Amino acid sequence: MIPHPLVLAVLGCDLGALLLLLYAGWVAARVVTNWQADATPEQLRLERQTEAAGLAGSAAALLSLLGSLVLVVAFAGALPGLVPGAMCGTGVLQATGGRGERALALRLLALLLLGAWRLVARLDARTPRAPLVRTAARLLLLAVPVALLAGLDTWRALAALDVHTPVDCCAVVYRHAHEAAAAGTQQPATLRAVPWIVASPLAALVLGVAALAALRRGGERSARRTGLLALAALAFAPIATLALVRVWSAYHYGVLQHHCPWCLLLATHDLVGYPLFFAILLVLFEGPTAWLAQRLGERHAELAAAAAARTRRATWGTLIGLALYVALAFGPALLWRWRHGVWLHG
Amino acid sequence: MSSVLECRQVAVQRAGAGGAPRHLLDGIDLRAESGTVLALVGATGAGKTTLLHTLAGLLRPSAGEVLVDGEAISRWTSAHRDLWRRRVGILFQGAELIDDLSVAENVLAPLVPRQMPAAQKHDACADTLTALDLAPLAARPASDLSGGERQRVALARALVGAPAFLFADEPSAHQDDAHLALVVGQLAAARDRGALVVLATHDPRLLDAGLCDQVVRLVAGRRAAGADA
Amino acid sequence: MKAPLGLFAWACRQIARQPGTALLTGITICALVTASATVLLLEAAFAATARELLGAGPSHVVRAVDATGWRPLIAGTAAETARTVVGVTAARPRLWGVVRSAGGAAVTALGVVDPAEFATLGQAPQQGQAIVGPGVALDAADGAPRLTLVAAGGSRTFVVTTQLDAASGLALHDAVLLHADDARTVLGLGPEQASDLAVWVYHDAEQAAVAQELAAAFAGAVRVTTRTEAIGAAIAGFAREGSLRLLLLVPATLALCLLLVVAVRRGRSARRELGLYKALGWSTGDLVRLQLYGALAVSVPAVLLGLAGAGWLVFGPARSWPAQWLFAWPGRAPVLVLTPAAGLQVAFGVASTVLVPWLCATLLPALRSATVDPQDLLRGGRA
């Protein structure tokens, strides 16, 4: 393993997060099996430990997030300089022998689960009788093994990183593009882009309408409105990601056929990938959060006020994510059209 | 806002010698409103301190409920009872000061985590020290104080946050008559400002000061029948 | 009345109650950061300097090879051949090689083919003269400064007209500039021969394509190195060297473990006091924050001080010391440059590798001790 500072930082963050999560997971397991609303010393101790586990879990989630961000920065900006032939994260991932992609996917899953746990735990902490304490503990127990696997895979990916054998960064991108073209039709690139050109603004429109509808207060249909928002957000995230890579990134690169998500994270492209992917992740997390908080508020009357506030915040979060994506993905395309009078895709 | 503190059939058990449960409190019922002073009296070991701590949310009863304005705080999680104690001032029997901190720092301790302007914290601390004749001692370490001074510093610490509920265990301990008047004055001031003051004491001077609106006598963890004032 | 009013001020007051422990912790963290940051900063600074230096150099270097290794090029023919390749804007033969001085140190002998190229250094050396870099040790002799080089056909002594100062940078640090004929003699080259050929192309993005064209244009076997490859090789070599030196972190990590034990012990001894805080209305979160602020109040200044110390060791007047000890750099160390991004990366990396474990080491006992209940205080029989 190369002792690059960012690599060490990722491993440091992961190690800290795992230690904290193991402690939190141990307490969560005891909550699931032993929680009793009585005055025994064991219960009092468990309540105190649950508080501490909540703080430990939050700190672990923060460290996981920080570690993931540092890992992405390392893959996108720092390690390409050490891997011969790598120009962006694609080349670095190639040098990890495919382990890097799985590590990133597992990290995302772990973060989403930890986010869901934190949502439930924070709502629960707002009420004096902790009605959701077992639910939160179960969610945490679900997140811990995923986080452990993510940490392990990250370690393996970084250990496998080969800085001696040259990689062909762009060849990977073009191979993917050619495979996609071969698997589909023999249509020209401009026509292949059409589904994404149509789907992504449509998904954005549906999401925007759903979010605005969810912002309307009260009413019997509020559950249905937040449900629609969650579904729209879940659909939007993959469509927006693929459309960004296949179509809208071209307006940042200035070339038509460079379908590389990692190059968007390079300084030469103004690091635009960071706010763009952040916007997609914000939508992916906040959309379902609005629905989940609303459901919890419905089921537990004592949580209603806190849940309603969180639902509203999540809806605004979704709208902000959507606005950011629209501005940074569609904006450059519109600017291009205005400047040059044509679209890149014809 | 007027508050009501109630106890309904409160019992506190501890494991005694040989593992058999020992009843520190058993079947206690009481009710007190804000703006009044309730005194808990009884012999040593009668359960005054245990009841005081149970009312203050430091102990959770084994049975029965402690209610504030109808809300059973004894069923709350420990975390919420911690937050509730921000509305509470507590004077422990043994003062429980931090010896290597100064008097002013000891008095300030409850205000440190609270979201309020620093000037307000400073003024509250200075005013309380002055009211209890402790201003000249503000910079001295707590370890240098006499027993009476320590008890007054602990009372100042309990009063500094202008609590809605004040629980004071032997507030007159080690006080000469001059300082007792100061202590009684501060307890009366807290009552007059609308706080519910609960005292645990066996000092007749305090009972004779005309401060108490209600006296509850405890005998072996139970409320003595027909003995209340 | 003088008292700490906020949580952070209160945490600082807590530190002041145990100044010895705080000082020891701060010194250990500072030493740990200084040691690791010095290695990493030196490595990053070298990489940045090499990148800047090679970035200003030719886009390709062509060297002739055979079964025994490198062999000289015929200067005129090679340059003509290179210029025939489309995209090449200039080709210039170079005379250089590593030779030993009489003292045994390795120096880089450079022949001045085009005096205009070295005009900024003053007058080009005449036959028998030399201009030397700041890292070159001269012969220990009275009178005019001299330098003896061990050449293929015997030793040759040159009169040193100028010794460049440290500001001349990494490129000329161990360089000995000689007249072209002297350089050929020292390097064992014939009159028409050159060490290699430096080539410049019109468009930098065409490096890879032009490299293949260049290789094909020469009749014999040649090795063409692009600028990108040269930068990568220089940085990777130094990084490998630096990585070994990171073994220095082992004792430092042991010291951090010791600090962890101290933090755990301190957490246990503070239980009674924390129970009192809980009784006074502090929450578990307040207590954890109090202990975290305390840890940060010690470690953040220590990390900053350590980073400043490392910066001073690498870029300050004492820079020779770490270069000699860590990388066995001969003589005085050159002046290095560092891009802000690389500097931030090192600072961030070191801060993370030290701060994160330290904060975790603090947080775990802090969480443990913050779970204290006021009942723990009461059961102690004090109240």
Structural class of chain C: alpha+beta
Largest sheet of chain C: 6 strands, mixed, barrel
Low-confidence stretches of chain C: none
Give me the oligomer status.
heterotrimer
Measured distance between first and last alpha carbons of chain A: 46 Å
Rg of chain A (C-alpha, Å): 22 Å
Shape of chain A: flat
Q: Please indicate the count of domains of chain A.
A: 2
Share of residues in strands of chain A: under 5%
Radius of gyration of chain C over all CA atoms, rounded: 30 Å
Topology:
The complex is a heterotrimer of chains A (346), B (229) and C (383).
Chain A: H1 5-34, H2 41-78, H3 89-95, H4 99-125, H5 133-160, H6 169-183, H7 189-192, H8 194-214, H9 222-248, H10 250-253, H11 273-299, H12 304-340
Chain B: E1 4-15, E2 21-33, E3 37-41, H1 48-55, E4 63-68, E5 71-72, H2 78-84, E6 88-91, H3 103-108, H4 118-131, H5 147-159, E7 165-169, H6 177-192, E8 196-200, H7 204-207, E9 214-219, E10 222-223
Parallel strand pairs in B: 3-8, 3-9, 6-7, 7-8
Antiparallel strand pairs in B: 1-2, 1-4, 4-5, 9-10
Chain C: H1 7-17, H2 19-55, E1 60-66, E2 69-71, E3 73-74, H3 75-83, E4 88-101, E5 106-112, E6 129-132, E7 146-151, E8 154-163, E9 175-179, H4 180-187, E10 193-194, E11 196-201, H5 207-217, E12 222-226, H6 227-245, H7 249-269, H8 271-279, H9 284-315, H10 320-327, H11 340-370, H12 374-379
Parallel strand pairs in C: 5-9, 6-8
Antiparallel strand pairs in C: 1-2, 1-11, 1-12, 3-10, 4-5, 4-7, 4-11, 6-9, 7-8
Helix pairs in contact in C: 1-9, 2-6, 2-7, 2-9, 2-11, 7-11, 9-11
